[in-house]
């Protein structure tokens, strides 16, 4: 196929921008790869015989008579079990010094799984992070983003999730990673002995930004192989989707397209949906769950990137620094898993939902007490107990550094309730109080 494609060679460019070139060519398809003056490019627009390609490394120095050779196919990835434990670039080429992967060549960025073959998510994915497992439980086949300010340690959280999650395969798609971040992920996976179940596709800050557009497709092509072909439970981690969207904006602006909100392309929603809708629970047990980082600009959740993301995904996990405890926590007020009720109390202990609700409500009461204190009002005994409880709750359950089982999370919550409150103040059903309260007091 490639040999035939290389016979379609053109040497007359009609237009050149900073990121794209245009020419007249026949029989060319969208997303097809090409070489422009020896540089890799991809078709991003066709109109009749007029073809526009984005040149991944930029167009500087490309003359109007540069040779353009079309591959006749879109980006592909060779899939097999040899992917496991390996690091690849945006084109699916090894960057870890290992050999090329042998396997079946598959088109990257193909269609999502047929809705008829989808099943309602029902399997729990524990991460060991209480702010997720206790309050915002993840379900296989779910799609959910982390919203975080750029200074939050979201890469650490993603690495922790990768090493703790009870899944068969982890696929990391790193976009715009610094070399330090790349080395952090690599060393973290190797030192944890988890490398054999992790596949990584990485674009660093030293590489062209538009290459980031290939990373999600490569990561999800690998994920579909393990989930669909091998019936495995796969977790896909994508970081940072804001940098992905910025790359979309770069290409869009250089093609002179009229920008939409916040300088983003008008296609942003569908571009993001194409990625997130790959999440699926399959009837034979395989699944693809997607957790993606979206960094915020000054905490602005109304920006086009998080705004569109929120419409597509099934909740969000919000990272913030908690000044009272000194921890980075998964914020219980701004985080939400819309599918948690599918597993809480069904795949977890019967008291899960009640404990979760009580814990967050008492934490909210502490925030009200803090507001009263800041405004000079006197605090009640209950207010003071809530403030002390909130510090322990943040340190022992909301902090991203906590790594315990869901059963331990529930037991810890009961201990905190018993330490600071009476059974009636928790608002938990009496039958659960009777079953769990005394045991939490005895274990103190």
Short description:
The protein is α/β, with parallel strands linked by helices. The protein folds into 3 domains: about 1-70, Elongation Factor Tu (Ef-tu), domain 3; about 75-340, Rossmann fold (3-Layer(aba) Sandwich), CATH 3.40.50; about 350-440, no CATH class. It has helices at about 1-5, 130-135, 155-165, 180-190, 215-230, 240-255, 270-275, 305-310, 350-375, 380-400, 405-420, 425, 430-440; strands at about 10, 15, 20-25, 35, 40-45, 50-55, 70, 75-80, 85-90, 105, 125, 140, 145-150, 170-175, 200-205, 235-240, 280, 285-295, 315-320, 325-330, 335.
Task: Tell me what the structure shows.
With 444 residues, the chain is α/β, with parallel strands linked by helices. The chain folds into three domains: 2-70, Elongation Factor Tu (Ef-tu), domain 3, CATH 2.40.30; 76-341, Rossmann fold (3-Layer(aba) Sandwich), CATH 3.40.50; 352-442, no CATH class. 34% of the residues lie in helices and 23% in strands. It contains 13 helices and 21 strands. Strands 9, 13, 14, 15, 16, 17, 18, 19, 20 and 21 form a ten-stranded mixed β-sheet that branches. A hairpin with a 2-residue loop joins strand 4 (33-36) and strand 5 (39-47). The longest helix is centred in the last third of the chain and has 23 residues, at 352-374. The model is unreliable at 1-6 (pLDDT under 50).
Summing up helix and strand content along with how strands pair, one would put the structural category as alpha/beta
The number of distinct structural domains comes to: 3
State the helix count. 13
Low-confidence blocks of residues: 1-6
So what's the CATH class of the largest domain? Answer: Alpha Beta
Percentage of residues assigned to helices = 25-40%
- Per CATH, the architecture of the largest domain is 3-Layer(aba) Sandwich
Share of residues in strands = 15-25%
Gap from first CA to last CA: 70 Å
Average pLDDT works out at 89
Main beta sheet: 10 strands, mixed
Question: What coarse outline follows from CA principal-axis ratios?
Answer: elongated
Radius of gyration, in Å, reads 25 Å
CATH topological fold name of the largest domain = Rossmann fold
Query: In total, how many beta strands?
Result: 21
């Amino acid at each position: 196929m490639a040999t035939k494609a290389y016979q379609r060679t053109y040497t007359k460019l009609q237009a050149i921008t900073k990121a794209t070139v245009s020419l007249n060519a026949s029989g060319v398809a969208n997303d097809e790869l090409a070489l422009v003056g020896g540089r890799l490019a991809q078709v991003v627009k066709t109109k009749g015989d007029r073809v526009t390609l984005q040149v991944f490394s930029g167009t500087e120095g490309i003359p109007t008579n540069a040779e353009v050779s079309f591959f006749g196919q879109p980006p592909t990835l060779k899939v097999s079990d040899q992917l496991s434990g390996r690091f690849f670039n945006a084109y699916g080429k090894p960057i870890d010094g290992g050999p090329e992967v042998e396997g079946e060549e598959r088109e990257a960025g193909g269609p999502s799984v047929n809705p008829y073959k989808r099943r309602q998510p029902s399997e729990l994915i524990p991460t060991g992070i209480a702010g997720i497992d206790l309050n915002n439980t993840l379900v296989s086949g779910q799609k959910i983003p982390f919203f975080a300010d750029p200074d939050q340690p979201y890469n650490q959280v993603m690495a922790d999730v990768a090493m703790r999650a009870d899944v068969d395969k982890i696929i990391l798609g790193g976009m715009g990673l610094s070399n330090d971040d790349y080395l952090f992920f690599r060393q973290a996976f190797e030192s944890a002995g988890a490398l054999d179940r992790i596949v990584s596709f990485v674009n660093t800050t030293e590489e062209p930004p538009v290459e980031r557009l290939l990373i999600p497709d490569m990561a999800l092509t690998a994920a579909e192989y393990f989930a669909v072909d091998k019936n495995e439970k796969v977790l896909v981690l994508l970081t940072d989707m804001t940098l992905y969207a910025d790359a979309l904006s770069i290409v869009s602006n250089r093609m002179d397209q009229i920008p939409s909100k916040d300088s983003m392309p008008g296609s942003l929603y569908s571009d993001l949906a194409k990625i997130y809708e790959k999440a699926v629970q399959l009837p034979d047990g395989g699944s693809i769950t997607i957790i993606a980082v979206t960094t915020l600009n000054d905490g602005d959740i109304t920006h086009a990137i998080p705004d569109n993301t929120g419409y597509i995904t099934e909740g969000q996990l919000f990272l913030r620094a908690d000044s009272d405890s000194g921890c980075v926590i998964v914020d219980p007020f701004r985080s939400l898993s819309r599918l948690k009720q599918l597993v809480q109390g069904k795949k977890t202990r019967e008291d899960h939902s009640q404990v979760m609700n009580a814990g967050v409500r008492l934490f909210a009461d502490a925030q009200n007490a803090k507001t009263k204190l800041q405004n000079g009002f006197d605090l009640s005994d209950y207010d003071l107990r809530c403030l002390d409880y909130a510090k322990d709750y943040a340190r022992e359950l909301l902090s991203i550094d906590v790594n315990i089982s869901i059963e331990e999370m529930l037991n810890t919550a009961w201990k905190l309730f018993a330490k600071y409150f009476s059974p009636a103040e928790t608002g938990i059903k009496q039958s659960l109080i009777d079953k769990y309260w005394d045991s939490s007091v005895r274990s103190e």
